[in-house]
TrEMBL record, chains A, B:
InterPro entries: Homeodomain-like_sf (IPR009057), HTH-type_Tx_Regulator (IPR050624), HTH_TetR (IPR001647). This is HTH-type dhaKLM operon transcriptional activator DhaS. It comes from the Bacteria. The keyword Lipoprotein does not apply.
Amino acid sequence: MEKQQDPRVLRTRQLIRESFIELLQSIQFESITIKDIAQKATINRATFYTHYEDKYALLDEVIEQAFKEMIPEQVIHAEALTEEIGDQIILLTYRYIVDFHQTCRLDSKSIATLVDSQIKGMLQKTIEDILSKEKENHQYIEILAAITSSAIYSATYQWFRLEKNSHADLLLDIVRPYIMRGLSKQL
Amino acid sequence: MEKQQDPRVLRTRQLIRESFIELLQSIQFESITIKDIAQKATINRATFYTHYEDKYALLDEVIEQAFKEMIPEQVIHAEALTEEIGDQIILLTYRYIVDFHQTCRLDSKSIATLVDSQIKGMLQKTIEDILSKEKENHQYIEILAAITSSAIYSATYQWFRLEKNSHADLLLDIVRPYIMRGLSKQL
DNA sequence: CAGAATATGTTGTTTATACAACTTTTCACT
DNA sequence: AGTGAAAAGTTGTATAAACAACATATTCTG
């Protein structure tokens, strides 16, 4: 699973990611150049290209890493999608969106769309993992996970856009029953 | 004067110095191993030896760099050792000693001795540079610089050991007339 | 005191990065 | 539209760093 790597590679990639994240705090994504990143990371510009195809690939990795680090242990090891686990996933999504928009200057909607779809993908993967432990029947799990994750994400994103300041309890009360009912065997 | 370097070298040396300084905050110098430094700097232990002969050489460089960065511009460009410049040098010495003992855990006296002699050397060099701009006669400058620098250092160090908390104004009032009279042509 | 463990240095080889010197792409501008 | 400047990529070569393997030295411990 874990591939051991040359420490130089790990360090260089880490430097690139850190520099990129720092740049994102003050410069819009579209305005960041590879030269900027390379300079800040004290690496040669050509070296950047041995690690990332372009800055979009770098953004992908940064988003993915940040999201993965925010997933609570309980969710990772969850054996079933209980109400509690559901709540945690919803809150995770909410915290991620808030964090992301707090620390990054996203300009064009195209970038926001990239980020969106990636988070949705990770959510889906997370939920799929849990459901496949819970359910014997593997047939519809992908579909259930897709529905559930997009439901959670879209609701949370709306919540973020409309009511930035309010507590998330109400969000939970809206989304939780929605997805729990959807996943229940009754339907 | 300034030699341009491979950025990898600069970065590695920087990493080593930073790691070493951080380690010094919590671990006594004698207890720090090359392995510790290499690990913290995320470099290979063998790489350490391509840059520094041992940890004493590293300590030397760190001390020298820190001291140089603390020298005020006015002192660097001083054309004569006036009372004002003298005061600045005394205060510089005091600040350096305080800083150094605040951030580093020095254990054995042998280390303190190393540090002492190096600071004295740098002080001497600084004063010699100023005096050689001021005086036509170059004959005794080295000796005057040696006397003056060691006077300043020893007085300041005593002051630091005995009256850590008190303001340095009194120190100035003691040392300034001492060295100014010593350097005056009257004697 | 012996010997086990740990730290210090050293060396030959492999590999990642630096760099210069390109070509191609993008984009501002009058 | 067309030109010049800046950015994006690419490639060959030189070198710093990684690493393993080794020898020696130091420190710890029963």
